[in-house]
Amino acid sequence: MNRAISRLTGISIIIIVIIAIIAALFIFTMAPTPTAGGTIKIGFTTSVTGSLSVEGTRQLHGIQLWQEWVNSHGGIKIGNKIYNVSLLYYDDQSSKDNVVALYERLITADKVDFLISPYSSGLTFTAAAIAEKYHKVMVATGAASDSIFQQGYKYTVQLYTPGSLYLKSTIDLLLAKDPTAKNIAIIYEDEIFAASVADGAKKYAESKGLNVVYYDKYPSKPTDLSSLLTVIKSKNPDAIIGGGHFADGVLLIKQAKQLNVNAKLFSIVVAAPEDKFRDALGADANYIMGPSQWEPDVKYTVNYGPSVSEFINMYVKRFNETPTYHSAGGFAAALVLQAAIEKAQSLDSDKVREAFNSLDLKIFFGAFKIDPATGLQIAHQMVLIQWQGGKKYTVWPTEAASKEPIYPKPSW
Amino acid sequence: MIKEISYNLRNLTFLSTIGFLVISVLILFSGSQSLIAFFLTLLELLILTYSINIITGLTGYVDFGHAVFYGIGAYTAAFLIVNVGTANITPYLFSLIGGLAAAFFALLIGAPVLRLKGAYFAIATLSVSEAVKVIISNISALGGSYGIPLARYVSYDVVSAYLAMWLTLLFAVILTIWISNSKFGYGLRAIREDEIAANVMGINTSLYKLIAYVLSALVAGIVGGISGILYVYVSTEYFKVDISVKMLVSMMLGGQGTILGPLIGTLLYYVIQYTLVTSYPFLHLLIFGAILIVVVLFIPEGLIGIIKRKFKQLKVR
After folding, report:
1. Which residues of B touch A90 (CB under 8 A)?
2. Residue B140 burial (CB count, 10 A)
3. Are B240 and B27 in contact, with CB atoms under 8 Å apart?
4. By the 8 A CB rule, do A215 and A203 touch?
5. A370: closest CA of chain B, how far (Å)
C-alpha cells in the first residue's frame, strides 16, 4: 500500500511535470523570433482544409505568386533600403477558434508586420477585431460583407466590392445602353447578403431616376417563384435584377422562361458567373448577365503592378490552372498592401493605414480606393458578365469588356 | 485490490486536475497574449469535452448534435447583448442565460430524443442540430444566415474571456466530480452498462438521462455564450457537426466517462492539432488521421486505459 502510494505520487508528479513541460514548450516556441533585417513579414490564415478550402487555396496561391513576383522584381523599397517579403501562414480549417489562436500568434509571437484576412466574411469578422486590438493593418480579401466595415474598425481595409454595390454596374450598363429605360424589378432571396445587395440596388436605381416597380423577396431556398414572377410580368419592367444564391438564381431563370416573363435585361447575382449556371440552363443561360469581382478576360489598363495578361501568364505557369477571382483577389490584396507600404515609406502600421487613404490605384484586379473612415471599398467595380452562345464574356464596364453586351435580350 | 486501484486513480485524477487548473491560472500572468489565446481555445474545447462527457461518457448515448447547445448559448447571449445592451453589466452574464436557454431546450427535446438508442439517438441529435441551424438562418431577428456581429456592443478581449472560461471550467470540473461520486453518477453508469437491468434495479432511467442531458447542455450553452462574445460574431457556424465531432474525439482519446479522461484527451488532441496546423499547414490532416488510427487500434479505451493498466501491473508485481 505504502509502496503503491509512493509510486502513485511519483507518477502524479511526472504527469504534472509533463503538463508543465508542454506549457513551457509553448512559451518557448512562442517566444518572439527576431525579424531578420530587410524582411517584411506578412501573416494570415487561410482555409487549406475545411468547407472553404477550394476558395481558400486559390487565394493562397494568389498571395504566394505575389511574393515570388515582388521578390524577383527587387522587393519593396523603403528609402534606400530594399526589403524582401516573407509570408507566414497557417491553416485555419475554416474554423473560428483557429482564427483567434492563430492571429494572436501571428501578431504577438511571430511579430508579423502586416495582415491579410482569412477567406470569407464570417472568419474576417473575428480577425478584424484582433487586428483592431493590436492596431495592425489588415487587407480583407474574400470578404464582401458590408457589415464588417460598419463595426467601427479602422485597421481593416477592403479589396472586394461590398455587397451593397453588387448590382451598381448592371444599372450603369442599363442606363448607358438604353437611356429610355424607366422601370426595373428587384427580386431577392430573404437573407442578409442578398437583402443588402437588393437594398443597395434599389437606392442606386432611384438615385438615377429609375422607377423600382417591383421590390420583393422570396424565402431562402425556394421551390417555386411563379407567383412573384406573374406579378413582375404584369408590371412589364425593362430589367429584372437580383437573386441570392446558385439554386434560386437558376430557378428564377427557368420559371421566367416557363411563364414567358420577358425583360430587356436579366442580371442575377452569384449564380450567373458560375460555369455551372450554363450547365444547369443550357441555351437559356444565353443573354443572362451577372456581376463578378473579376474575370480572366477583363481588359483593364493598369497604373500599378502587373497587367492582366502578365498576371494570368504567371499564374498559369506556376499553378497550371486558370486563375479565378479568388486567386486574383489574393494577389491583388498583397499588391495594394505593397503600394501602401511604398507610399508610406514606412513599416509603421498607422502610417501605412494613413497611406491607404490616399491610394487611388488601377491594378489588374480593377480600381482600388477606400473610404478613409471605415476602410470600405468604394472604387472597385463589379464586372458584368454575359452568356453569349454558351460562353461567358465580360461585357461591362467598357474598359474591362472583352465583348459588346447584347441588349436588349431577345424574348424567350 | 480494485478498491486500491480506484483509490490510486482518484488521487492521480485529483492531482492532475488541480495541477491543470493552477497552471491555467498562471498562464494569465505569463503576459504572453498568444499563449493566453492558445490556452483559451484549449479551455473552450476542454469544457465542451467535459460537457459531452456527462451525457455520452457516462450514459453511453453518443450525442452527434451536441453543438446545438453551444449554438443556442451563443445565439441567446448575442441576441440579449444586442437587444438588452451591456450597460453596467458584464456581457458574460448573458452567457449564463445562454446556458440556461440551452438547458431548457435540452429539457424540451430530451424526453422524445432520449427514448432512442444507439445509432438512432446519434442520428436524431444530429438532425435536431441541423434543424435548429436551418430555422435560425431563416429568422431575420437573428441575422439570418449572416449571423450577429457583436463588435459594436462588446470589445474583443482575450483576458476577460479567459477568466469567464476558466470559471466555467471550474464549474464543469466540480460538476463532473460531483456526478461521478454521487448515486446519480452510479445510476448513469448503470444505464451505460445495461439500461434494462438498471431500470429493473429501481433506477428511474428516463429521469436520470434527462437530468444528465440538461446538465451537459447547460455547460455547453455557457461556453457557447462566452465564445460568441470572444469571437465578437455569432453565426450558424456554431452548429457545425465538426464541433460535436471534436468533442467526441477528445473524449474518446482520453477515456470516456471518467474525470481525468477529458483533460488528457483534450490536451493531447489540441496540442497535437495545433502543432501540426502551424508546422504542416498542408499535411496536418494526414498526420493527425494516422495518429488517430494508431490510438484507436492500440488503445481503444483511451489513454486512461493505459494508466489503469499500469496501476494493475504495479499491484500484481
Report:
1. 277-278, 281
2. 12
3. no
4. no
5. 21
Residue written as grid cell 447578403: A193
pLDDT of residue B145: 62
pTM for this one? Answer: 0.81
Judge whether B5 and B316 are in contact, CB under 8 Å: no
**DSSP string over A58-103:** HHHHHHHHHHHHHHHTT-EEETTEEEEEEEEEEE-TT-HHHHHHHH
Q: Which residue has the cell 493527425?
A: B288
What is residue B61's predicted lDDT score, i.e. its pLDDT? Answer: 93
More confident residue, B300 or B212: B212
- Assign residue A34 a region (left: φ > 0; alpha: ψ between -120 and 50; beta: otherwise): beta
Instruction: Convert the pLDDT of each residue in A167-184 to its tens digit.
Output: 999 999 999 999 999 999
Mutation for A interface: B82, B240, B278, B311, most A CBs within 10 A: B278
Helical (H) or strand (E) element with A55: helix A53-72
Q: Is there a contact between A104 and B231 if contact means CB atoms under 8 Å apart?
A: no
Rounded to whole angstroms, the Cα distance separating A307 from B211 reads 65
Euclidean distance between CA atoms A30 and B94, whole angstroms: 33
Residue A234 CB-density burial (10 A; 0-12 exposed, 13-18 middle, 19+ buried): exposed
Q: Is B291 on the interface with A (CB under 8 A)?
A: no
ipTM: 0.84
CA A336 – CA A341 distance, rounded (Å): 9
Write out chain A residues lying below 8 Å of B267, CB-based. Answer: 19, 22
